[in-house]
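Reproducibility note. Readers wishing to regenerate the assembly model reported in the main text can use the exact inputs given here. Chain order matters: entities are listed in the order in which they were concatenated for prediction.
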Amino acid sequence: MEHNGRRTFLGVCLGGLAAAVAAVTVWPVYRYLAPRSTRATAARVDIPEKEIPEGEAKFFEFNGASAVLVRKRGGGLIALSAVCTHLGCIVQWEKDKQDFLCPCHGGHYTPDGVVTAGPPPKPLAKLPFSVANGVITVG
Amino acid sequence: MNLLGSLLVLLLPLAVLWPLASFAAEPQEIVCIQCHGAMPGKIGEPVKLWKGSIHAENGIACNACHGGDPKDAANAMSPARGFLGAPKEAAIPAFCGRCHVGVLKDYLASAHGKALGKGGPTCVTCHSNHLVVKASLDIINEKRCSQCHSYERAKVIRAAMQETEAMIVAIDKRIAAYKVQGTDTESLEKGLFAVRNRFHTLFHNVDVGMVKKESAGIQADLKKIQDQLAALDDSRQKRKIAGAVVVSAMLLLALFAHLLRKTFD
Amino acid sequence: MALFKRLIDWIDVRIGAREIVAKELTGYLLPRNINAWYSMGSILLFIFAMQVVTGILLLIYYVPDADKAFKSVSFIMNEVPFGWLIRTCHAIGSNMMVLVLFLHMLSVLFMNSYKSPREFNWLTGFILFTLVQGISLTGYLLPWSQLSFWATTVATNSANAIPVAGPYLVEFLRGSKLVGPPTLGRFFALHVALIPLGMAAVVGAHLFFLQRTGVSTPPFGQKETANQWQGDGYRYESHPGGIPFFPNYALEDLRSIFIYLACFLAVVFFAPNLFFTSDSFLPANPLQTPAHIKPEWYFLANYQTLKIFPNEFIGLSVQGAAMTFLALLPFIDRTRERHPLKRPLFMICAVGGILLWVGLSVWGHYS
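Running the prediction on these inputs yields the following structure tokens for the assembly.
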């Protein structure tokens, strides 16, 4: 009986400590695998104004995702997220039609990001930007 | 039967084995050294001196300063191939200053530089020529300075720089110690390099007021590097504590397993 | 508890789990005089599993490209959270694997467990030994440091001593005239795919042979120490009245593994640079050979052997002969007696062999 009590006690000690060690081991592995903060891509992106002529679009990486700057016919400038709101493909600029096409399922957006056709549920997200001394700063 | 081989029982080789490292990738010797290295006296001396210099350490050979063609023995010293020979005394600062641009500027602006050609010191007066070594505060000493003037002023400058110099040397040692352990010290090294350069320009100013004014800023920058090193020390310390905990946990687990095993006898 | 029992019942009626447990664990009896040396195999299995896990984790950030490999390892060591821990565990684990493997082989040697009918166990073990050396050697190159580069140059260069085919063989091993990006590609494939898969397969065979022949009885503390095997027919060596594998010996295995882990982690945390020289933290430079390139400690004896013979081919042949002898040991040593103290000649040769190996290693280290 005493033997059994001792056995149970030691079993609990061994199992408990082993479980604790296993739990502690998970932490470094989780931290090792956890996504790293996206400081690689700056939260602000500078683009010279002359890189975007009228009617053209420029794609760039912003905050770890794709974004696009468009200069509409007539000169209006706009910065949008280039990620389609349907399933996350990257939209393409159709210069001849002056609109965005998502190649995955045929979503269409105006240069302002408003959905004109296809499955996207929401317009493309607008990004804040400012223009100073011929340089466009997004973010 | 198993005797002979048993001798070799633990001489365990592998399909791939290790021979002598019989190849050394020594760089090809340039013709300047081939000839001058073997010459006696004054004409061969520079090669011996150069071999102990910081230039040799960094792969800066004869032709980097003296010009000429180090690959063509016949025309090695032809002016047509850019051979310059040895500069006249007054031309020495310009000679060295082709590479050490910033130092040349500081020197020319200093009392030393202004006395060039009027008995003032040139680069080699303090640094020597072929056996030039990494500069340190030791260059400022009574024997050298009092060749031209009294040591008093130099002593004051040296004292003002002493503390910062000691900091730089100490930080350099600590960075080197981390480097050989596999720590990525690149940004630390670059930081120290920049600060050291700033500090070294003071050497050539020979202006006590300037030295005192600048030293505070330089020491503040050095402090930043020291803080980074302190953070590294701290993380290494934490690793040791964590290590002590996990090693103890393993020993405790071994003890529990052992005791539990004994209950099954 | 009742729920747990019902779950076990549910499984049991389907696959007969209790029968397996009774036969392979609680009913698997081991000799009463079994000792701690018998748990070296379990430690090795544990180390192998750990190398696989840490190796897969390293693959996440490691880039097998000559231009990027060194930087990626430095990134793992300095930037990735706990990357230093995983990389250090993998690197030190490999050295520990070789060390424990030596102990495993020594215990089998001194307990004369390699004798009939266990030739297959010895042979598969010997293959594992060469595979461990191969995986260590190929893994050594991957960080693309000065040490990696030049140690691999020296190692592959030794094949030059082989007559006629030597120079081509060297080029074939390297994938190019000199060690370079092609070498990294093939060593990487060997290190992360071919050799580990081969090892897993041979470990399977090794365990299968153990299961078929049964565990050998240690010769110590026995009156009758001669080999009882007659060779007249297959017979599983059972140990009636022995101790059950589970829980008795499993706990001893566990104890050995925890003691191993304590030693291993002590090195990882307190002497992480025990097996590294400063050359392992400099990126590979094909134009500059570092001053004192030495192989890893377990290759030092081989290295020194090649140096003491005037001709590299002789040195290579001697090692090949020693290796072959070792591989064929159970076929050469056919005496029945298994107690080492009753075999003075064997003891002299075995201890002499070990001292020779240690001596050559020390000599190689200081030469």
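We highlight two features of this model. Chain A touches chain C through seven residues (CB under 8 Å). Chain A has two domains: 1-34, 45-138.
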